[in-house]
Amino acid sequence: MVGLFLFILRCRTRNIIFKRKSANMFLHQKELTEKQFQIIFLLWNKVYPVAFHFDHWQDLKNYFISYTDHHHILHMKNKSIEGWWCDFIREDERWFTILVNNDLHKRGIGRSLVELGRKQHKSINGWVIETNELPKIEGDLYQSPMGFYLKMGFEKTKINVETNSSIKTVKIRWVNK
Fold first, then answer.
1. Rounded to the nearest 5 degrees, what angle is found at the Cα of 84, between the Cα atoms of 37 and 116?
2. pLDDT value, residue 18
């Protein structure tokens, strides 16, 4: 009988933890490899509106390296990155970003990444694009994930940014109560 199983393997040399449920795996790391950054770059540009794209994977890497105390969680299936969580320190607060492959929304990957990522913190912040219908690279339109975050217990703050192209982003915050 093949059932779901969970195991944890610690790799001391890279501070890596694997959590596996069937063929799905969550990989925890303090740093990403160059290859992982390249894959996340492609995923980033596929998931986010064109206005938020990076021109090169190195630009994405440099953006995140400018912050400190990173914690990455990769959702893997058959050695393929399907989702990514990263939390880090920016301006003396814990922040996060998350990506899930567009084709895999509504399958619990985002929920799992958020739950795994935030359980290590008392509070965490993020920026959410609140503007809907923005064009993405493959021609489809971006839909704001604000409803998802509100269901996950995040609260909208009064801090927001509107860019020149009328894109509105809002700071969200989760506090462990």
1. 140
2. 45
> What is the distance, to the nearest Å, from the Cα of residue 134 to the centroid of all Cα atoms in its chain?
19
Domain boundaries, the chain: 12-175
pTM over 0.85: no
CA pair distance 99, 40, nearest whole angstrom: 8
Report residue 15's pLDDT band, with 50, 70 and 90 as the boundaries. very low
pLDDT at 107: 79
Could you report the per-residue pLDDT of 113-132, keeping only the tens digit for each? 999 999 989 999 999 999 88
Whether the Cβ atoms of residue 127 and residue 167 lie closer than 8 Å to each other: no
Residue type present at position 35: K
- Report how far residue 151's alpha carbon sits from residue 131's, in angstroms, rounded to the nearest whole number: 18
Token digits of residue 43: 């995923």
- Lookup: tokens for 46: 């596929």
State which CATH number among 3.60.21.10, 3.40.50.150, 3.40.630.30, 1.10.10.10 fits the domain covering 12-175: 3.40.630.30
Q: Which residues of 73-107 are buried (b: 16+ CB within 10 A; e: fewer)?
A: bbbbeeeebbbbbbbbeeeeebbbbbbbbeeeeee
